[in-house]
Amino acid sequence: MTAIAGNPQRNAEFYVDTLGLRFVKQTVNHDDKYTYHFYFGDAEGTPGTNITFFPWGDQGRSGRFGEGQTKVTTYFVPPESLDYWIDRLESNDIEVTGPIERFGETVIEFDDPDGITLALAASAGTPNGHPWDPSPVPAEHQLRGFHSVSLAVSEIEPTADVLTEGLGYEFETAEDGWHRYRSAAGGPGSIVDLVETNRPRGQMGTGTVHHVAYKSQDTAEQEQWREHLSDRGLHVTEIIDRKYFKSIYFREPGGVLFEIATMGPGFTVDQNEDELGTELVLPEWLENERKEIESRLPSFKSPSVEPDPDVQ
């Protein structure tokens, strides 16, 4: 999941200090080299745990939520962790909506500092990823992977067709206007919910999600997806090298931008695991511009990590 934030310092401190995620990678947007690209995930940056941001700065254009955008990004938490998270969020002056019941699971929702809506779903499933020992959140309560994503569209069927016939999802059930689809593989991060909206087309900017990413094992599988989706009339990009993975992109009929990214080579191609996120790293093709890039990026300091004071 990749979204657009405002102030980079505020963004990083919220996702590390408040949500307890690891700051996995500090680099730049390859399509806009004077904008940071931050990655937050589990201890190793395992695929399926990473939420990433392009922080546009305090002067960046504000986005507007609407049709063709992500409505809610939901993390998995064990049922016994929900009270911990309610207390933690409220103690940090974050307004929590819920708990509510959705598809037989208890869910709470809240906004990050830029207005991006996040949720925690209490589920008995097995979490993805690996706990991060220095996290301010105890290991048993850490966010270790996505549960689901909900997309706002004007009509369910065109997007549902891409999910089922294009990406192999299966319709599961509908409840209170939410239509749930699950990938055949199952497990964490396998759910996409579609919700109809009568809002106008959303405007990309601070406080909105830029795109939703799916995984492929390698470029051979990626090429198969590219051919399959193109045969269904979707415009799919060529494979693009993002250093830590390779990507293809396409926009589904409802307006949401999708990415299919390879599982590797991963975040340790340019840093050891214990060094992840500690300094700005650039792809080789931008390294000779480092001085200019650093001079134009906003001032930023990696957030310090303080243990949860309630943990004995």
CATH superfamily: 2,3-Dihydroxybiphenyl 1,2-Dioxygenase, domain 1
Q: What is the count of helical runs? A: 5
- CATH architecture level-2 label: Roll
Binned strand content: 25-35%
Tell me the Rg in angstroms. 19 Å
Strand line-up across the major sheet: 2-3-4-1-13-16-15-14
Shape: globular
In the CATH hierarchy, the third-tier topology is known as: 2,3-Dihydroxybiphenyl 1,2-Dioxygenase, domain 1
Keywords: Dioxygenase, Oxidoreductase
Pfam families: Glyoxalase
Protein name: Ring-cleaving dioxygenase
InterPro entries: Extradiol_RC_dioxygenase (IPR052537), Glyas_Bleomycin-R_OHBP_Dase (IPR029068), Glyas_Fos-R_dOase_dom (IPR004360), VOC_core (IPR037523)
Topology, element by element:
Elements: E1 2-5, H1 8-18, E2 22-29, E3 32-41, E4 51-55, E5 69-77, H2 82-91, E6 97-102, E7 105-111, E8 117-122, E9 146-153, H3 156-166, E10 169-175, E11 178-183, E12 191-196, E13 209-216, H4 219-231, E14 240-241, E15 246-251, E16 257-262, H5 290-296
Parallel strand pairs: 1-4, 5-8, 9-12, 13-16
Antiparallel strand pairs: 1-13, 2-3, 3-4, 5-9, 6-7, 7-8, 10-11, 11-12, 14-15, 15-16
Describe the structure.
The protein has 312 residues and is an alpha+beta fold. The chain has a single domain, classed as Roll (2,3-Dihydroxybiphenyl 1,2-Dioxygenase, domain 1), CATH 3.10.180. Helix content is 17%, strand content 33%. The chain has five helices and 16 strands. The chain has an eight-stranded mixed beta sheet with strand order 2-3-4-1-13-16-15-14. A hairpin with a 5-residue loop joins strand 7 and strand 8 (117-122). The longest helix is centred in the last third of the chain and has 13 residues, at 219-231. The two termini are 34 Å apart. The mean pLDDT is 95.
